[in-house]
Amino acid sequence: MKTNVSISEVIAKLQPRKFLKLESIAPYGTLVLRKTGKGSVVFYWRVTIGSKSPAYQIGLYDSSAPPLSKSPTPNGYSLRAARMAAESMAEKHYAALSDGGYETVIAQQQLQEQALAKENAAAGHSLEKLYMLYVDSLATRNHETAKQARNLFAKNVAAVFPEIANTQANRVSSEQVVTVLRDIWSAEKYNTARKLKAYLHAAYAMAKNADHNPTVAEEFKVFAIKQNPVSDIEGVKPKDTGVDKNALLPDDMRKYWQVISKAGAQTAFLRLHLLLGGQRLEQLVRLKNCDVHEDMLVLWDSKGRTGSVRPIVVPLIPAALAALKELQVQGEYALSVTPGRPLSTRTVNTWAQNIVGEQIPAFTLKRVRSGVTTLLSKLQVNAEIRNHLQSHNLHGVEARHYNMYDFAEEKRKALEDMYAFLVTSSK
DNA sequence: GGATGTACGCGCTTTTGCGC
DNA sequence: GCGCAAAAGCGCGTACATCC
């Protein structure tokens, strides 16, 4: 696809979750691009091996990378750098064709990892130590997630199966993991079992990768993990999981606005939450005074696998500013009822339930966020602006590189239009 | 035989409900 | 107002079908 069409034009036309061939790679395979459901743009090298055509990820596209750069920037690849990476992969594939191609190259790399791990194998490093080390790494991104993961292990493994928790990590068998999971499963805690399995798998995966991934802490090496005992355990599926598509309809949103329009700190929080575009509660409650500016505020989003933390710039329309002033306190956190600590999302939910009650059937605060999306859509706000406002495409290239003030005016107008709709009588 | 397009399940993180 | 358990949201890899 070496045409006159620029890569930015290609990206603009690319459908989410679809692969698009960019160009052929000599001697084998193709360089392809994929946009995720939320707008991330990722390079892959794809090749047919036997009856399969796996796509091997190269890395994110970095629109700000110099076009002629041959190696990736910290933020990703230029087209040229991605092409060179794909060519390198293709050459390895070609060299190993008689042995099975690139799949074999990867397998050999894993064997080398295992051999190295064996050399470093050390006694005394238990499953619990490994797990907690992993949890500590989670804590650097999100304390809440780390706390929950820690409690999960303490309650379901350390307390119930202490002998398994104390087993040397690289000697833990799949059967031992299954024993733990079965115990939780039999108590009908399906999601708990599923989550524990996920964390155990992730802890082992991180330790196993310690030698080849610079982002993995040095301490993981001493566990000498050469295989993941969780990998060959069949999937633990939750029962009766559904998808919440129960967004508040525009008329409900108007009703909601009427309900929360009365004075008071609790309603002020709900007004602020709504007029900021229905931001995620977990992020909104962590708002710090240093991130509150004259006409906008900044929230920080750590959602996603990349481990990065991203700013979400939200314009403050006058009504939102007024709501903020009603409950803003001094200190580190702008929204707090316990000195020195951010407001709990749990508390906020309680407020919302108490205030709204039965005035809106089956009301939950979560429905406000999706209700904002629905309302903005009705108000002709395009999806790109909606996504930026609610940080739905955080990992997309546009989101990573856009200037703090990009879309500010569009987002402000969207919020003002929404406010105008809310305060207008439907009759 | 190899390239391309699409759907879907799993892993991880965030949000919400319940009970204290 | 908080801790815990469960549900929901989202990125990613891969199976599968079809095309060249």
Automatic annotation (TrEMBL):
Record carries keyword DNA-binding: yes
Keywords: DNA integration, DNA recombination, DNA-binding
Single GO MF annotation: DNA binding
Gene3D superfamilies linked: 1.10.150.130, Intergrase catalytic core
UniProt cross-references to InterPro entries, sorted A to Z: DNA_brk_join_enz, Integrase-like_cat_sf, Integrase_recombinase_N, Phage_Integrase
One biological process term in Gene Ontology: DNA integration
Family statement drawn from the similarity comment of this UniProt entry: Belongs to the 'phage' integrase family.
Name used for this protein in its record: Integrase arm-type DNA-binding domain-containing protein
Organism: Chitinibacter fontanus
